[in-house]
Predict the 3D structure of the following.
Amino acid sequence: MAKKSTKAFERKSAALAALIEALGNRKVVTEGREKYMASFDSSKLSFDYDALILARTEKDVGTVLKLANEYKVPVTTRGRGTSLTGSASPIKGGWVLDMMKMNRIVIKKEKSMAIVGPGAVVKDIQDAAEEEGLFYPPDPSSLKYCTIGGNVACNAGGLRGAKYGVTRDYVVALEGFLPNGEKVSWGGEYKKYATGYNIRDLWIGSEGTLGVVTKVVVKLIPKPAAKWTIVVAFESEDKALQGVQEIARLGLNPAILEYLDCNSIYCAEEIGGVKLFKEVSGKPLLLIEFDGTKARLKEDRLRTLEWAKESGIAFKEAKNEKTAEVLWNVRRACSGAMFALGNAKINEDIVVPLENQAKFARFIGRLQKKWELPMPTFGHAADGNFHVNIMFHREDEEEKRRAKGAVAELMEKVVALKGIISGEHGIGLAKTPFMTIARNPAEMEVMKAIKKALDPKGILNPGKIFDVFEVWDKTPEKVGLPWDKKLLPKQ
Amino acid sequence: MAKKSTKAFERKSAALAALIEALGNRKVVTEGREKYMASFDSSKLSFDYDALILARTEKDVGTVLKLANEYKVPVTTRGRGTSLTGSASPIKGGWVLDMMKMNRIVIKKEKSMAIVGPGAVVKDIQDAAEEEGLFYPPDPSSLKYCTIGGNVACNAGGLRGAKYGVTRDYVVALEGFLPNGEKVSWGGEYKKYATGYNIRDLWIGSEGTLGVVTKVVVKLIPKPAAKWTIVVAFESEDKALQGVQEIARLGLNPAILEYLDCNSIYCAEEIGGVKLFKEVSGKPLLLIEFDGTKARLKEDRLRTLEWAKESGIAFKEAKNEKTAEVLWNVRRACSGAMFALGNAKINEDIVVPLENQAKFARFIGRLQKKWELPMPTFGHAADGNFHVNIMFHREDEEEKRRAKGAVAELMEKVVALKGIISGEHGIGLAKTPFMTIARNPAEMEVMKAIKKALDPKGILNPGKIFDVFEVWDKTPEKVGLPWDKKLLPKQ
């Protein structure tokens, strides 16, 4: 045993020495605050590891992987580390490969494409596209911080998903490296191909376990000319979710259709002090935004107002960005205010099919009573992707136990309602205990077989997705992150 | 050797007996015209095989695969067999699994989804969607015949790809079976998931080599209110392809943007007798269709007319479906008329990035001269997906030799121009010799590793994509298919 661990130590040291020799001292960080801050993601689950690598070029990435493959060193790739699931936490140690410096953004207007490095921040891509009259729609809440590489890794979504889709819908091509350091590209600067297996889409959402992306080609679309926003209050959660179905039935196609349940509204109004309506309190809302040509918006507005008058109990509209901000405040306020209900939040991004949404809302009501924890729930109702925010106090062992029980029951229910346990965050470490309720044994075997076939040495982001990790046994770091408590639903 | 082949024969017989016992005589066809007609696809490359299976239920499919796995029988899944590449030809014999009877179509209006069997004909799905005011955009030329299962297998595209994308962009979920007969589902009736590897998109485009689809959930979108069509003639092919870039630069987003080169126009005008303009002859065209709200179309029309007057030498517009038909006739006529130039056509669906399209057109000019064969070229210019139609006489060995040389040179050039060898047809048998110029060794290894991991016995559609097949050494069947020579670009 002692001999074995000595050997392991020697291999680690040799690997690190080879790495420093290949990349130089400046790109390899083996101690200090910077290294510590890359030992966890937004889950704050920290693990010890050997070296932080600040990749600057494609060649760096190839070199790192060749060495990692040779010495069997685990490699956890990361962008800004905004993941909520621990997917960027280096649970098996080894090396952390930081891609933030590979953040090139080139907009190709005539092709409606952007060629970006994996470290490019999503908001920066959006801004660069807008300057050319173009639009990159995916808008995860962390968009001011998170990178396109991370968005590709978990197939990030956002508020505009119902109309515009998610990251996957905009990725035209990926370039990068296999775990053995060999260069591959899946697609090019063209939108169509039917030439062998589609590995591009297999990599998207694989959470850094199959390859490392060094270049992303994304599709851009024409920027919508204008927006129109409305908030509608409903008598009950049932009525609000019926409203989601009515909007679909009317053939309306809003860019954003956010649902806020009674608890979320309580947070916004009573804690956050943001109250949209004088005449009604504590009522669930739909926050709806249309975009498109002015003519189209005019038509959408008329039809939506007619529906709102009939189905809602109050509404407020905004014709420009400034008054829209007032409406968005309610969503923003509720996110922050939740922390008055508990200093810890489990944000589960589950998906429920349209026809089961009302059933699901009633279930959340029961779940809160049973486990005696507040669970303000809001989310992207048009695609059934709700964020159930289970609030508790981390230092209270009894509350922790109840939160754990609530999460497990939630996951079982979501699958029973023919939904799925993650819509946009991914599995990482946090959701590993629930993979087997979401996926049958044959499906799990297919995924594991692919992992084994493409990463036979198990180098890339080991310990994620497939190995069950007991997140509750591990204490998160007590450290502030720039986006803590202020992840904005709208920028 | 003799012993081995006796054993193989015995295993085949035992497998067939077990199959008939499990499925009954009516679903298993072992001789006759029906079986023969399923021995090839639109490539007309016919191979001998043991049994045609007419699957009626999901259970049938599971049973077939369990037996095939047990007895190691090759299984080639097929829909209508419109594939041009031989992807549905049972090159390794065994069983052909016909899915045409599994053609259920259920439209779920409030969810904007259709739940369809793999045997559902694409045009029938479109019609059913339209009845509910919805729209299924992918439109391969064979849409009146081809099935959604086949469309999923090759990720079929069509004319509306530039604005609306391809089959992949509409597939929400797939249900089906692994090669070992185990049931799996990739996604459900919801649009978002980030729960383990995305096998749905790996199956799409895998040409029936990884699994058998028994249910497809597709996304539908609101049906556009109106259309506006224009045909613009240009002084030269260069100018026409510059036009494609200008349209992109203007931020116009047509649903269809078809390019027809001089040769295609020659076919339409001189052979097909369809002449759109009195004042100009033999000039390349762009056929452009916008769709959307009437207000939007008005705006698009004004901007497009302004551009057409400046860049084109003649144009004709159509404000309704009937006059649009007249414009579409030119595309239709050219497809049929080509057969006056040769009784055999190789239709290569290559893709070239926008910036290299003009270069590519000049290359096609040189290629025709060098190999002394006509190659009318048209296609979906906005996404760079051109159909190069190499015409020759099949019985003329010398012409065949030249056609073969031209295809090889075409493929090399496409890759050199940073394009890809297939945009929507797939690889099948026909394009297998060119896979290794389109994909590097590392990429090929990844694909092969996946095939081996998911189908270790090599049962599903063996001999496709990866094994080089010399299509020129095999004589196609002399048999008529309903869509021969009349695959319409527009229905």
Remarks:
- Chain B touches chain A through 87 residues (CB under 8 Å).
- The mean pLDDT of chain B is 94.
- The first strand of chain B starts at residue 28 and ends at 29.
- Residues 2-98 of chain B form a domain with the Uridine Diphospho-n-acetylenolpyruvylglucosamine Reductase; domain 2 fold (CATH 3.30.43.10).
